[in-house]
Structures are given as structure tokens and as C-alpha cells.
Amino acid sequence: IFAIGPNIVEEQRALEKAYDLPAKNLIETGYCLLDDMTDAYNRMEKRENDVKTILIAPSWQKDNLLDYCLDDLLNGIIGRGYRVIVRHHPQYVRVYPAKMNRILEKYKDKTDQNFMIETDFSSNVTVYSADLVITDWSGIGYEFSFTTRNPTLFINTAMKVVNPEWQKIEVPPIDFALREQIGVSLDVENLANAGETVDTLIRDTPLYYDKIGRLKNETFYH
Q1: Is 112 helix (H, G, I), strand (E, B) or coil?
Q2: How far apart are CA 134 and CA 124, in angstroms?
Q3: Cβ-proximal residues to 109 (8 Å cutoff; 6+ apart), any chain
């Protein structure tokens, strides 16, 4: 099994123990996708945004940010001097086209130079050029922060569970720890504080640069 980092090794050994499985040969490969994203980002022309840009990029599982709390989140951050872009997951459009159309219709009269819903996925420029990403349990938060070394705001919607027996494995999912190390997590009940939380993360972004760099080296091989 190719392991991108120490947590994969730890989880695999715990899984073998929990299910009495034979030990696998684990190869320390690193994370090639993240290498490619970092390389692409480093080759980009960098310029500071005239208006700080917030990218809302949720996952598409049940009770994701779009379905569960988009209105409350937008109410908390729009009007605070930021440019806000909503970039839904491509799979959301494929699986829930009617829902997506309702969202587009609902906000069509509210879009302007400081608020838009992005529907073009041919480029990742908006991801790389954002000052802050807001997501739920999507991996884009980790990709964004480990590539740009800018923080992510995680909204604690219902947790995305791929393995319903995850608690049999006596290793806490790395998602739990990373949420509080590469940014801040906020409960849905506290979205009234989203604006202040965004303000703080934008202000403190330079403090995350070295911290996220060290964490990246600890989390991934090579």
C-alpha cells in the first residue's frame, strides 16, 4: 500500500489489528497530487488581491454547507469588505442539478463584483488566488492550505463518514486534528460569529505560513 504520510501507516496497522488482517507492505511515497498543486502554485504570477477574496468551497455529501447553512454563512460575511465566491463541488451539479438550479435562481439578483457563484471548473485559479477558503469536510481545505500556506475556515456540518465502522480503528481521523491546526473550525450554531472569525483569520494569515509549512512536512512523506 502506498502511504502518503505517517497517519496512513498508523491507521493501516490499527486496521489490521482491529480486523485481524495480515500486515501489508507499506511504501512511503508522499503525496504526488499535492506536489503537482504546489508546483503549479509556485509557477503562478502572484499579486495581492485588491479586495480580500473568500472562497466558499463545500463538499457534496448529505447536509453539506450548500444545503445546510449557506444563507447563514453568507449573512455573516457579505458586507464586511470582502469579495465572496461560492464554488460548489463539481459532483454536486451532477448529482443534484435541481438543487443547484434553485441556488443559482435564488442568488441571481444578488451577484455583483463582490459576490458570485462560480460554475466554471476548467481552472483552479480562484482556489489558488483566494485569501481564505471556507469549507465543511471537503479535502479542498487541506489542498488549499498546504499549497498556499493560507488558513482555512471549516464549518462543522454533519461529518462526512466513508467508513461507518471508523470508530473500530483506534486512531483519531487526521481530519479532526488538521482542522484546528491549519485554520479554525466553527460550529453551525455559531455562524453568527463567522464574520469575526473571517476577520481574524485574514488578519492572522502571515502567522500561519511557517506553521502550515512545518505541518506539511510532518503530515506527508518526502
Answers
A1: strand
A2: 15
A3: none
End-to-end Cα spacing for the chain: 16
How is the beta sheet containing 183-187 ordered, strand by strand?
115-118, 83-87, 53-56, 132-135, 152-156, 183-187
Rounded to an integer, what distance in angstroms lies between the CA atom of residue 116 and that of residue 138?
20
Burial of 81 (0-12, 13-18, 19+ CB in 10 A): exposed
Rounded to whole angstroms, the Cα distance separating 114 from 110 reads 10
Q: What are the tens digits of pLDDT across the range 172-186? A: 889 888 999 999 999
Q: Which is nearest to 114 in space by CA: 89, 90, 80, 148? A: 80
DSSP, res 45 = P
- Contact call for residues 143 and 178 (beta carbons, < 8 A): no
Type of residue at 160: K
Q: pTM for this one?
A: 0.92
Neighbours of 30 (CB within 10 A): 15
**Residues 68-89: pLDDT tens digits?**
899 999 999 998 999 999 998 8
Helices (H), the chain: 6-19, 32-43, 65-77, 90-95, 97-107, 125-129, 140-148, 174-181, 194-219
Amino acid making up residue 34 = L
Total Cβ atoms within 10 A of residue 71: 11
